[in-house]
Amino acid sequence: MTENFRTTIEAPAYPFNIGYDTGLMFFGSCFTNSIGLKLKDLKFSSDINPFGILYNPISIKTSLEILAKKSLFEKEDLFEHSEMWHSFSHHSKFSGMDLDRTLNVINDRITKSSENLKNAKYLFITFGSAMVFEHKETEKIVSNCHKLPSDNFKRYLLNADVITVEYFQLLNTLKNLNPDLKIIFTVSPVRHIKDGLTGNRESKSILFVAIQQIMEHFDNIYYFPAYEIMMDDLRDYRFYTSDMIHPNETAIKYIMDVFGESFFTKETLKIKKEIEKVNKAVCHKVLNPETKAYQNFLKNNFENIERLQKEYSFLNFEFERSVFKKK
Asked: Which residues contact 111 (CB under 8 A, 6 or more apart)?
C-alpha cells in the first residue's frame, strides 16, 4: 500500500452549480485576476475587477457600493501625479495622461459593471491583505497609493470586527439590489511579505476570522479554500513563480480544477473540455504551415468551432474563427 505524503484537500460541495448561462463577477487580489481570466478564456461570462486589482476588504467594499449605487466619478475625484491622472479607488491601469479620457474610461466601466452586478448570479470576493493605507488628507482608505510619498498615508492593520461590520452593511445593500446573488469568499494564497512572514500570517488570520463572522449571519455566503489548497495541498516551492510568492501556472490550473469540481455542472464540464481543445489548437505552433497535414488540422478545427457555435449559441468564437481563417 502506497503512503500518501501530502495533505489532499477534497473539492468542497456547494448547494448550487455554475453553468455557462450564469453571470460571474470577481473582485479582489491578483489571485482573483488569475482565476477570473482562466474562466474568461473558457468563455464564461465574467466581469473581472472593474476597479483593477484590490487587496484590502474595505477597498473592495467601497468599490461594490459604488457599483450598487452607480455613483459616477467627477473630475474632482481624480488627482494629478507624475504627469498622470489617478483615482485613489482604482488600480494604476485606469490612470491616464488625459483627464477627460481617464474619467470616461472609469465611468464607462462603472456603468457597465453596475448593470452586471444587478444581474450576476455569483460574486467572488478574494481578500488579499488586512493591511490598509489611509490617505491623511482625506482620512479615506485608498485602493492604490500610485507611488505618492509614504508620508501621505497612515498604514495599519484592520480589525476583524471592523471588517465584519462594514460587510454587514454591504451585504444587506447587495441583497436588496440582487436578491438571488450568491457570494463566495476566498483568501488569496499570495503572501504579502513586506511585513515579514509573521506579519503576513497575522494579516491573513484577521481575514479568516472576518469571513467566518460574516458567514454566520448570512445564508447566501460561501467559502472556497483557495488559500488552503495552495498552502497545505500544494506545499512545495515548485508551485510558485520565481519570486517565491505568487502561485505559478501549474498551481493556478490545479486550483481551477478543484474549483470546477466544486462548482460546475456536468454539462459545463463537458463544454469546458471542448473549449480547452479549441484553445490548445489556437496556440498550436507548427514548423511547416504549408503541409497538407497542417491545412487539414486548420480545416478540422475551423469546422469544430462552427459545430460548437451552432450547438452552444451563447458562446462567442469570433477570435478563434479569425485565427484559423488567417492561418
From this structure: 70, 72
Which helix H or strand E contains 24, and what residues bound it? strand 24-28
> Which regions of 253-323 does DSSP assign to beta strands (E)?
none
- Side by side, the strands of the sheet bearing 182-187 are 46-48, 24-28, 122-127, 182-187, 221-223
| Alpha carbon of residue 314 to chain centroid | 22
Rounded to whole angstroms, the Cα distance separating 262 from 84 reads 43
What the chain holds in terms of domains, given with CATH numbers, is 24-264 (3.40.50.1110), 266-327 (no CATH)
The burial class, CB within 10 Å (0-12 / 13-18 / 19+), for 294 is: middle
CA dihedral (242, 27, 224, 20) positive or negative? negative
pTM comes to: 0.91
Quick: pLDDT tens for 119-172.
999 999 999 999 999 999 999 999 999 999 999 999 999 999 999 999 999 999
206 CB neighbour count, 10 Å cutoff: 22
Contact (CB, 8 A) for 259 and 35: yes
Amino acid at position 171, single letter: L
pLDDT in tens, 19-28: 998 899 999 9
- Compute and round to an integer the Cα radius of gyration of the chain: 22
- Torsion angle (degrees, nearest 10) of CA 231, 235, 240, 243: 80
Give the residue carrying C-alpha cell 450598487: 68
Phi-psi region of 254 (alpha: psi -120 to 50; beta: other; left: phi over 0): alpha
247 beta partners:
240
